[in-house]
């Protein structure tokens, strides 16, 4: 049984090791995306006054010719608003509503294509599914690795890197260092799989969790025949949101999707872990009147638990210490995946027969 488990562990590692390495390294880089983006104004202080937010939104959304599809507002760690346009086009704007830089393709911004690589492998929903399967296989590596390590636990040696690049040294480092980081690696794999595969959600959060989460996060019914007015009071939506949730952080303002006739405004209350929050207000696209408001703190317990999955996966909670832990986890996955493929496919030199010694 152990021999079969070892064979399966090694073969799967040799086949998808590089894929796991790509996911690990790209995830480690994305954890610190706000630091290395390098756009002028990224370090500006976070503006939270309602009047300033309303004025910036009105300025960016007023002109139908230049209006973005959505605005992701600045945060404490990143002092620029991010705008999304049709296709892959986007822009950064300062918190007063002035455009700082634009791009027409994701390849013009490393943080954008790196995000697409990590989440979709540059292949949309299909790539996301492949990444999810790789995450589940990676979780299997953690479990089988612990099983295979247990009989050899007395020979454990802590090393940051392999002693040398020999096959024996790499495999021993892989075994001992992997055991140390097994909890963090498992957390990364499980949280990633939950976000992609709803059956995994049911397995982790309990039967029926998928249906409950979908139902509780469902937007209100579309307003049939309602079209976006050219002169909406965008600032008024933010003022209304702040009236209802005075301490909430304004996060995302989005145009109606798929003819819904609803403008959405997402907020993050202080108790929410999700960076962009799930507290949502919907406004009629023709008049700007408030249609419905959803308080994320009043969602069912399993929906709130699901909302905490992404912050755990992307190290959006816990501050710098947790970001460093997840960085080590991602880089370790990159090291393991690369060296596993190299040692698996590297042909060992046949041992030379030694001549018998003559007394």
Give an account of the 3D structure.
The protein is of the alpha+beta class and 359 residues long. The chain has a domain at 2-35 and 113-206 and 313-345. It contains 13 helices and eight strands. The chain has an eight-stranded antiparallel β-sheet with strand order 4-3-2-1-5-6-7-8, covered by helices on one side. Helix 4 (110-120) packs across helix 5. It is elongated, with a radius of gyration of 25 Å. It starts with a helix and ends in a 14-residue tail after the last helix. The mean pLDDT is 92.
Task: Write a compact overview of the structure shown.
This protein has 359 residues and is of the alpha+beta class.
Q: What's the layout of helices and strands?
A:
Elements: H1 2-31, H2 33-36, H3 50-61, E1 70-72, E2 81-84, E3 90-93, E4 99-103, H4 110-120, H5 124-149, H6 167-180, H7 182-196, H8 198-205, H9 209-216, H10 234-244, E5 249-254, E6 262-268, E7 279-284, E8 290-294, H11 301-307, H12 309-313, H13 319-345
Antiparallel strand pairs: 1-2, 1-5, 2-3, 3-4, 5-6, 6-7, 7-8
């Amino acid at each position: 049984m152990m021999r079969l488990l070892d064979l399966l562990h090694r073969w799967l590692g040799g086949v998808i090791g590089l894929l796991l390495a790509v996911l690990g390294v790209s995830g480690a880089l994305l954890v610190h995306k706000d630091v290395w983006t390098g756009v002028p104004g990224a370090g500006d202080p976070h503006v939270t006054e309602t009047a300033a937010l309303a004025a910036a939104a009105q300025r960016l959304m007023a002109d139908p010719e230049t209006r973005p599809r959505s605005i992701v507002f600045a945060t404490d760690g990143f002092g620029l608003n991010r705008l999304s346009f049709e296709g892959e086009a986007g822009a950064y704007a300062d918190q007063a509503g002035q455009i700082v830089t634009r791009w027409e393709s994701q390849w013009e911004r490393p943080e954008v294509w790196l995000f697409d690589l990590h989440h979709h492998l540059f292949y949309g929903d299909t790539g996301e599914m492949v990444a999810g399967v790789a995450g589940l296989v990676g979780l299997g590596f953690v479990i089988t690795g612990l099983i295979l390590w247990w009989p050899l636990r007395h020979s454990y040696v802590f090393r940051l890197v392999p002693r040398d690049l020999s096959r024996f040294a790499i495999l021993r480092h892989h075994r001992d260092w992997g055991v140390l980081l097994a909890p963090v690696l498992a957390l990364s794999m499980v949280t990633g799989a939950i976000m992609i595969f709803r059956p995994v959600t049911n397995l982790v959060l309990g039967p029926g969790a998928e249906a409950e989460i979908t139902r509780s996060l469902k937007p209100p019914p579309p307003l049939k025949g309602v079209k976006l007015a050219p002169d909406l009071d965008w600032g008024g939506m933010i003022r209304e949101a702040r009236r209802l949730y005075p301490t909430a952080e304004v996060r995302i303002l989005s145009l109606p999707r798929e003819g819904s006739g609803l403008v959405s405004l997402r907020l993050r209350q202080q108790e929410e872990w999700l960076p962009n929050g799930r507290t949502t207000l919907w406004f009629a696209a023709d008049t700007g009147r408030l249609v419905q408001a959803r308080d994320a703190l009043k969602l069912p317990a399993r929906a709130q638990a699901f909302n905490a999955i992404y912050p755990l996966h992307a190290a959006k909670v816990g501050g710098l210490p947790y970001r460093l832990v997840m960085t080590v986890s991602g880089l370790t996955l990159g090291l393991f995946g690369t060296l596993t493929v190299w040692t698996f496919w590297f042909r060992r030199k046949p041992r030379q027969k030694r001549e018998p010694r003559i007394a």
